[in-house]
Amino acid sequence: MSVDTEPRRRRLEPDARRGQILACAVRLFGARPYADVSTTDVAREAGVARGLINHYFGTKKQLYLEVVRVMATVPGVAVERLPDGDLRTRVDASVTWFLDVVSRHRDSWLAAVTAGGMGHDADVARVLTEAEEVAADSVLVAVGLADATTCRAELRGMIRAYGGLATSTAREWLQRGALDRDQVHLLLTATLLTIVEQVYPAIAARRPAVAHPPPA
């Protein structure tokens, strides 16, 4: 969920050019519905020939799916940069990072998580599902449970549910104005701490012990 949104009108290396085109696409798809953005628009915004859009991304839809992926996926560097410290420090930093990103890329992020006028598109749904799993992995690393094996399926389910809460709560702030940033931060921090410190241990404690056969 990190992209440089400033186009560069100069000769660039392939990776940099691809990133520049993607940044322009992020901005345009955030400002308009999917149907109102063409690859010609993106090329004009990026200052490149339209053929380069096809070269780097293929079709308009493939470009859009990459925009959704970038906006919805937590990059590994975000977890790597979390501060050392206790659980509360890392949870607070994780929530702060999330709120910083979604507010900085407000329109593009909202368009991505609401499918930007694409409706119930199967490809968009697949990309968002993949992003949910990446986000769950990142949260588990952040809270020190990446290697937890007890009730693993239940734990991932709770973390995915938390991800859904994070998305919905951010929309209440950015889209509906029902909550302010401090309230969202408090809700998301308290909820994640409760899952890790109370709910998950309680569920794990209720799992019956595995009976091992007696030695022969």
UniProtKB/TrEMBL annotation:
Residue spans binding DNA: 38-57
Keyword presence, Transcription: yes
One Pfam family, short name: TetR_N
Keyword annotations of the record: DNA-binding, Transcription, Transcription regulation
Gene Ontology molecular function: DNA-binding transcription factor activity; transcription cis-regulatory region binding
The keyword Transcription regulation is annotated on this UniProt entry: yes
Name listed for the protein in its UniProt record: TetR family transcriptional regulator
Domain HTH tetR-type: 15-75
Classification via SUPFAM superfamilies: Homeodomain-like
